[in-house]
């Protein structure tokens, strides 16, 4: 089968369905030299004139396979030279990065490649004046292997959807094509490619799936690959609907300060609430996968519990589930420095009390010790009514639903253990101005 016929029968409708290409696009091709990427290279060459594409290939030598990797790089260089396609080459010492970061070799290589792809696409967009696409050569086998890999490791709906045909500016035109058909079309057209010997080793999880599990699926049903692909498409439609509902829930639940109303999330259907939580937490993370099902399930469990709860998240972040809201706390959030100003003056009947929440008057004659500014300490209390009844500060914090992580930071104006003012909240009844007041201490609070 010629490349043109292969394109018409297997790929063209898929490209149109997912709006992968537009006329005048710039496309960065991930070109390893393996059969999949070489096939993608020739498919895009076939489409170059039709779509008026500006093509640029990018090859990454991961420094993993020594001289074999160097040969692949040379092959790609000659291929691009022969067909007049610009090539961007990179050499990245993945083993050294793995030693530094502790990530797996596969993960580190993937991160390095996609960072380079994005940079190349940005540069190509600057040259052409249009956003550039990144073409990756994932095929139907890769998609099925990914689904099985996710199932084995534990996954939710997103993981069962497999590899997306389009994600942002990344396109995968070969995603519905089986590997066997790719190899056949290369053979029919006498097109050479490189063989990565590590793909035949079963040291990597994906290779175990490829060589041990996928053949068994084919024995059960020779259309197993097709059926997995169809399943991922149907599940993607379900996931898209859930995402739509989850984003709507977030709009309803989100307050002006960015916090979420706890009740709005807690009363939503679990499947929608789960995805809303995942989307919300992902906005604070470098990668969506940093939010695991463990985090989401724990949060759902805590939403219906009384009091304040905390869930530790990656990157030194904490989700606070308070009495009425939930929000993410950054460990490195800058703390403000409080500034207090004081003045004393004689009191005269009829004076207007300050209405500012952060300016308060106190009866000087009722202050028995030295006025100090501090945070809470054991034994602190307030006078809560005109009868002189006391309440421990800890109990007051609970009754007022002040988040636990803020309680040690609330400034207090104190007369020994008697709290005169819980700044931002209330003053003690004992120190309020009365008809017997002769002198006033005014204290105002600001933040630098």
Question: Helices and strands in order, then pairings?
Answer:
Layout: H1 3-17, E1 26-30, H2 35-51, E2 54-61, H3 67-83, E3 86-91, H4 94-101, H5 105-128, E4 132-135, H6 140-153, H7 157-160, E5 166-167, E6 170-171, H8 179-188, H9 205-220, H10 224-253, E7 260-261, H11 262-266, H12 270-282, H13 293-303, E8 309-313, E9 317-321, E10 325-330, E11 338-346, E12 359-363, E13 371-374, E14 381-383, E15 390-392, H14 393-399, H15 404-407, E16 412-415, E17 418-422, E18 439-447
Parallel strand pairs: 1-2, 1-4, 2-3, 4-6
Antiparallel strand pairs: 5-6, 7-10, 8-9, 9-10, 11-18, 12-18, 13-16, 14-15, 16-17
By DSSP, the count of extended strands is 18
**Total domains:** 3
In CATH, the architecture of the largest domain is 3-Layer(aba) Sandwich
**Rg for CA atoms:** 32 Å
Strand content: 15-25%
Largest pleated sheet? 6 strands, mixed
The number of helices is 15
Shape: elongated
**Helix fraction bin:** 40-55%
Average pLDDT level: 90
């Amino acid at each position: 089968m010629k490349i043109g016929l292969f394109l018409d029968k297997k790929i063209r409708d898929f490209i149109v369905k997912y709006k992968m290409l537009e006329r005048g696009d710039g496309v960065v091709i991930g070109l390893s030299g393996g059969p999949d990427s070489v096939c993608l290279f020739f498919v895009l060459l076939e489409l170059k004139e039709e779509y008026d594409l500006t093509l640029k290939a990018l090859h990454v030598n991961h420094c993993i396979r020594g001289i074999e990797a160097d040969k692949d790089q040379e092959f790609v260089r000659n291929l691009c030279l022969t067909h007049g396609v610009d090539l961007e080459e990179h050499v990245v010492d993945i083993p050294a990065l793995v030693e530094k970061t502790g990530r797996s070799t596969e993960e580190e290589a993937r991160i390095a490649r996609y960072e380079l792809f994005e940079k190349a696409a940005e540069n190509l967009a600057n040259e052409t004046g249009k956003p550039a696409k990144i073409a990756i050569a994932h095929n139907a086998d890769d998609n099925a292997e990914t689904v099985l890999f996710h199932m084995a490791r534990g996954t939710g709906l997103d993981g069962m959807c497999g590899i997306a045909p389009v994600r942002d500016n990344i396109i995968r035109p070969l995603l519905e094509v089986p590997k066997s058909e790719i190899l056949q079309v290369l053979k029919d057209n006498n097109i050479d490619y490189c063989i990565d010997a590590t793909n035949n080793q079963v040291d990597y999880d994906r290779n175990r799936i490829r060589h041990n599990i996928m053949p068994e699926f084919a024995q059960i049903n020779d259309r197993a690959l097709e059926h997995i692909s169809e399943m991922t498409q149907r599940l993607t439609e379900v996931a898209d609907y859930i995402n739509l509902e989850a984003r709507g829930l977030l709009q309803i639940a989100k307050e002006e300060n960015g916090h979420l109303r706890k009740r709005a999330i807690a009363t939503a259907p679990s499947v929608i609430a789960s995805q809303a939580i995942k989307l919300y937490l992902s906005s604070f993370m470098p990668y969506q996968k940093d939010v695991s099902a463990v985090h989401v399930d724990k949060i759902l469990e805590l939403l219906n519990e009384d009091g304040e709860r905390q869930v530790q998240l990656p990157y030194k972040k904490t989700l606070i589930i308070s009495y009425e809201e939930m929000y993410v706390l950054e460990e490195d959030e800058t703390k403000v420095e409080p500034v207090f100003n004081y003045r004393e003056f004689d009191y005269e009947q009829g004076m207007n009390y300050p209405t500012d929440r952060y300016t308060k008057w106190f009866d000087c004659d009722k202050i028995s010790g030295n006025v100090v500014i501090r945070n809470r300490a054991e034994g602190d209390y307030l006078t809560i009514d005109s009868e002189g009844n006391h309440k421990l500060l800890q109990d007051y914090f609970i009754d007022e639903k002040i988040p636990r992580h803020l309680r040690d930071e609330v400034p207090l104006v104190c007369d020994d253990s008697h709290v005169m003012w819980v700044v931002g909240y209330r003053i003690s009844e004992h120190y309020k101005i009365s008809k017997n007041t002769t002198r006033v201490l005014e204290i105002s609070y600001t933040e630098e």
